[in-house]
Amino acid sequence: MGSTPPRRCSTAPPLKGSTIDWSVDAAATGLVDERYNLAISSFLACHLADLGKLYVEAARLTRPSGKVVLVDYHPFMLLKGVPTHFTAPTGEAIAIANVVHLFGDHVAAGCAAGLTLLELREQLVDAEWIRENQRLFGEPRLAGHLGHPVSFAMVWARA
Ligand SMILES: C[S@@+](CC[C@H](N)C(=O)[O-])C[C@H]1O[C@@H](n2cnc3c(N)ncnc32)[C@H](O)[C@@H]1O
């Protein structure tokens, strides 16, 4: 999300070997139908009230037999009241409101969008993660959540 107007698909150059530098609503990208082999949503879904629109958009963008990968914070962590936050390119620490979507909500939304769930994995906070946090941030962030689910990844297929 940003103040820069979205670059529309009709004027976008071929994407092979390039990156896209633009901001747009992930649930209404304006990109063309069925153009991509892979659509990825990374730590976004928990900020959206309407999960259905995100899955419909991801399914619309992917080619037949294409994949949709969705990674996000685990609903368990959100239900514990742990806020999500990230660092903006300016270095500013930002927290965005969260919406708890249970796995059943994801499955219902993905299936309704015509996707098939191939794989679901959940990540627990482990000792390695706590050590890495200590190295990066100088404090053992998440140490109090050792053994609890912190994130998950889903792989979906387009028919
Ligand atoms: C926790 S950050 C994740 C950033 C990045 N995707 C990553 O995995 O490191 C959440 C991001 O979601 C973006 N965001 C929130 N609502 C959005 C929307 N409706 N469409 C697109 N991006 C959105 C925010 O601007 C922010 O960059």
Q: State the shape.
A: globular
Q: What summary fits the major beta sheet? A: 4 strands, mixed
Order of helices and strands: EHEHEEHEHE
The CATH architecture classification is 3-Layer(aba) Sandwich
- Distinct compounds present: S-adenosylmethionine
Helical region count? 4
Percent in strands: 25-35%
Task: Extract low-pLDDT stretches.
Answer: 1-12
Helix content: 10-25%
CATH C-level: Alpha Beta
Q: List how many beta strands DSSP finds.
A: 6
C-alpha termini separation:
30 Å
CATH topology: Rossmann fold
Assign the CATH superfamily. Answer: Vaccinia Virus protein VP39
Work out the radius of gyration.
17 Å
Overall mean pLDDT: 88
Order of strands in the sheet with the most strands? Answer: 1-2-6-5
Count of all domains:
1
Structural class: alpha+beta
Task: Name some characteristics of this structure.
4 helices; binds S-adenosylmethionine; 159 residues; alpha+beta; two-stranded antiparallel ribbon; Rossmann fold; 6 strands; globular; four-stranded mixed β-sheet; disordered N terminus
